[in-house]
């Protein structure tokens, strides 16, 4: 398996650090699209990822277009509150790219418009003050469903 997490312009270092730790423990690749809301050597980022950073395959891109140029065959699964299909209702490819948007604004409309059939959501309460789950929690929920579908191949 070659699962991938794709974060579009993440802003909070602790979230990305937690996601990196999950990636290290699941042998999942981490892809980051700039601009980032932090430096990759920031102490909060490293503290959240602890000493797992050396176990993570991290790729950084200047833009979504650059990501697509370098990964033209990427099978995107876009997680968004704007979707109608639920994350557990789909079959994940073994080389899936699970894409999550930035904490304050999500994924831009042009990406939504370019991939209307590849958008999924996590079920949650519909309330104006409860916009979405924490990014690192959302990543864990969806990643573990994708891994479960492939019987946690390679994990103990």
UniProtKB/TrEMBL annotation:
Gene: trmL
Residues reported to bind S-adenosyl-L-methionine: 79, 101, 122, 132
InterPro entries: Alpha/beta_knot_MTases, SpoU_MeTrfase, TrmL, tRNA_m1G_MTases_N
Intracellular or extracellular location(s): Cytoplasm
Highest taxon of source: Bacteria
Family the UniProt entry places it in: Belongs to the class IV-like SAM-binding methyltransferase superfamily. RNA methyltransferase TrmH family. TrmL subfamily.
Protein name (database record): Putative tRNA (cytidine(34)-2'-O)-methyltransferase
Species this protein is from: Acetobacterium malicum
Key word S-adenosyl-L-methionine present: yes
Alphabetical GO biological process terms: methylation
Summary of the function given for this chain in its UniProt record: Could methylate the ribose at the nucleotide 34 wobble position in tRNA.
Matches recorded under SUPFAM superfamilies: alpha/beta knot (SSF75217)
Coiled-coil parts of chain: none
Keywords annotated in UniProt: Cytoplasm, Methyltransferase, S-adenosyl-L-methionine, Transferase, tRNA processing
Substrates-to-products reaction catalysed: cytidine(34) in tRNA + S-adenosyl-L-methionine = 2'-O-methylcytidine(34) in tRNA + S-adenosyl-L-homocysteine + H(+); 5-carboxymethylaminomethyluridine(34) in tRNA(Leu) + S-adenosyl-L-methionine = 5-carboxymethylaminomethyl-2'-O-methyluridine(34) in tRNA(Leu) + S-adenosyl-L-homocysteine + H(+)
GO molecular function, one term: methyltransferase activity
Enzyme class, spelled out: transferase
EC number, as in UniProt: 2.1.1.207
Lineage: Bacteria, Bacillati, Bacillota, Clostridia, Eubacteriales
Residues annotated as domain tRNA/rRNA methyltransferase SpoU type: 3-144
Main subcellular location of this protein, as a coarse class: cytoplasm
Listed NCBIfam families: tRNA_yibK_trmL
